Structures are given as C-alpha cells and as structure tokens.
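Board notes (copied after class):
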Amino acid sequence: MADEHVSQTPPSFRFNVETGEHDDGLLTFFDVRPRLFGIAYRMLGSAAEAEDIVQDVWLRWQSTNRSVVENPPAYLSTTTTRLCINLAQSAHSRRETYIGTWLPEPVDTSSDPGLGAERGEALKLAVLMLLEKLSPTERAAYVLREAFDYSYHDIADILQMEEANARQLVSRARKHIANGRRTPASSDEQRRLLEAFLAAAQRADMAALESLFAEDVVSTSDGGGIVRAARVPVAGRERVAKFIATASHFWKGVTLARIETNGQAAVLVSREGLPVALTTIDASEQGIDQIVWILRPSKLAAISKSVQKFHIDNEPGPVAA
C-alpha cells in the first residue's frame, strides 16, 4: 500500500465535553502528553523530532474548538500520528543523504521509566532500526498496536483506512520485525553480555570478544559526519572482534556510566566530563548479535544531562574504565 500524505488534523468528534470558560485544554493535554511523545518517538526514532511534534500538537489543540471534541485523548493521538507520518516521509529522504549510518536517538528510560511502561519491546533500539525500513503507515500501525495496544478499529480510524487494511499493516510489520531479529536474550543476560563485552574490549582480547559474538554479529556506528566513526557496519565474528580490539585506545582515560536506554542496559562513555559515545548491545541465545555505537554529540546531549542529574541526586558518580 503506497503511503499518502495524511490529513494532519483529525475530524472533530461531535458531542460536548465540559470545559471551563477559561479552560485552555492544558490539563487534558498534560495527562496524555507522555503517550503522545511515546508514539512520536517510536515512529521517528528522534527525541528532538518527537518533542517538536508534541509542541505542534499542543499549538493545534489550542486553536481547536474543544467543545466539539468527544474524545480528547483519541483526537490528540490521531493528530500526533498523522503529523508523524508526514514527517517520516520527508525524513526518509534526509536520512538517505546522512553521512554514515543513521541510528535512532537513544532515550534514558532509567530516569523516565514511563516512556517504556507500555510494551517496552517496541522501544528497543534494534526494533526502532527495523521500523525505519517500514513505510510510515506500517510503522504507525505497528507502534499503535504493539506499543500502546490500540484496537484495529481505532488504528483504522487514525490511519483513515478499512480495519482489514490496518490488520494487514500490523501483520506485515510484525513479520518484518520477526524476520530481522532473533528472539532476544533476557534483560539479565543482555546486561551480563554487555559487561563481558566491555571488559574484553578494554583488554583488546580478541578471543574473549569472539566467544561473546554470534557468527553474524554486526557493529554499527553513528557519527553523522561530525565525529570519526565507521561509515558502514562491520559484520562477522572475526571482523568485528578485530575492529574492536584494534580500537583499544578508545578506552584510555574514559569513565563509564551504566544506564538504561530504551529499556535495555547501556553504557555512556565520557572523556574529561564530556560524553563521547553510548554503547549497547542486542543479544540472543547465539550471543551478541548487534553492537550499537551512538557517537554523534547531538544524540548524546540529552542522555548526558539525565545521567549527570541522576548521579548528582543518587550516587557519587561514574567509575573510571
């Protein structure tokens, strides 16, 4: 099904709701805002773009005749989804010209657990990377169903299509995700493998690295042309182990902060107080399938701020590598 430019504002849902004479809709919007951000972030893979969408939805909500909106949360979710579809269509061409590999912007779910509260699997970086290969409407259908448990009827209304078509979109998206990713290891096993990987990488121990990797492991870096990074993914157990081992200088003089991003264990690497990378893995029973390196400074800024606040409020600080 070809994507179309979707109407950005849903039709009014008739019937009155009680609103005060001076009500600006803030309370209603505030209550649903986390879900709006969650939808937008999962669809776009960018916290910055998601915030822009939510701000745009707020401005539209201000100018809407709210007295004729029967179901404000549904109205706001629909507006958010349609804006995201339109932005995703334009973002696709921008990412085709991106220098190197584009990866989603990570979010710190240790400081904002609500973001991953509803079906967190659809929040994982590996899943967001696979969603990028779907059409915007397929992505929307998958996110609404898998992350937020919307009914097929509601998804069809939001996407302006028949319910049978909405079911087909979700089915295709599920198959794409299932075909692109093995059954993930448990959270505890992911954390154990990440720690073992960090230890082996800092020792430049190729044998130890290879023992942790699946045969078809892939290492993907996102520097965005701003910082030095591998511009194409490195694949294969031996090649990735060699790539990691020959970069042992990367770990000199850094501090590591263990955090949770996108509902999974990760580590923020800093040098002289400045973040230089965020590293996480995706693993299955075969071992580590994927290593992700977020190196672009703009994608590390928000993570760094939340980590600093967490340590100020709760702990002495990160430990040296």
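Comment from the instructor: Strands lie at 213-222, 234-235, 254-261, 264-271, 274-284, 287-294, 319-320. The chain has two domains: 26-105+132-180, 187-316.
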